[in-house]
Amino acid sequence: MIDALWGWPPPVLDPAGPYSGKVTTLAWSLFGLGAFVTLVVVFALWVAIKGPNKWKAKLGGERAIWLGGVAFPGVVLTALLVWGLTLTASLTEPIHGDEMRIRVTGEMWWFRVQYLDPSGAVVMEDANEIHIPVGRPVVLELESADVIHSFWVPHLSGKKDMIPGRRTLLRIEADRAGEFGGVCAEYCGRQHALMGFVAVAHEDGNFREWYAERTKRLVSAGRGITTPKEPLSASMTVASEQSAVSRPVAGADANSGQLSGQELFMQSGCAACHRVAGTEANGLAGPDLTHVGSRRTLGAGILPNNRGTLIGWIGDSQSLKPGNRMPSYDMLNAEELEAIAIWLEQQK
After folding, report:
1. Distant-in-sequence, close-in-space partners of 48: CB < 8 Å, separation ≥ 6
2. Whole-model pTM?
């Protein structure tokens, strides 16, 4: 559990990239200014209660009110607003050239992640994990499929609302490899507190290998997913293969009469909501499970990903995360649940 939830709750004011560094600078400046104003107010209270009469007279005078109550906050807040907007302007600038693009959509209660090519077409899809290269800015296109969510990975950038019907931009960048926890930062309903994700920063060479491995398993699933001519950046080249990948079928002996994990997955209705590349599963409502076996967590960060938790999640997801849109498959027996879990484990 501790490994799965590494970085949770994600610490603030611990930047791991240039964009979060700007946010941290602004935050410390606000803390400092807040402390200064607090000290001034405390001093003014002391003067009003215990101070010399001469000081009390000046504090209650018209000049002090104009200077301390109008001029000072007006000048300071205006300067702070201009400086803050200037400092963080680069986080939300329009997309430049061939910058890497990832679309993240907030759902109740998980994050749909789609990697885009330079033209904006969807290359591949994942859920609750974002993979980026170290030392390169990545533009996130943020959307919501239902209610207002908020995307926030404090190590890498500031937070940004995900609003239904509107697409907003946010840049993230990591200056070191690692895994960084993220959360939904806007109350979005019953399981808001259980809506998290992990951002994984790879050294450039490792990222290319990871991306090449993922893209070679792509299949066109009739939803705009295409193999990129140039993946994410005009400067990158990766292997691509648009044909379906044959996945092993596990969970039962083909001669025993038992259904395999893949067959159970299809017959139980899982394929209506989930997509698994290379199979007939093409559901759009739930997370894409093409690479679910390689994910670090299940249920948007609430469980480590292993066979036991897969079985538990499939069989009783409503107890683990009440109100989520996946029903509990308690009609399946233990052997059937394990067969499905084994097959999903192999989807990497």
Report:
1. 56, 59, 60
2. 0.83
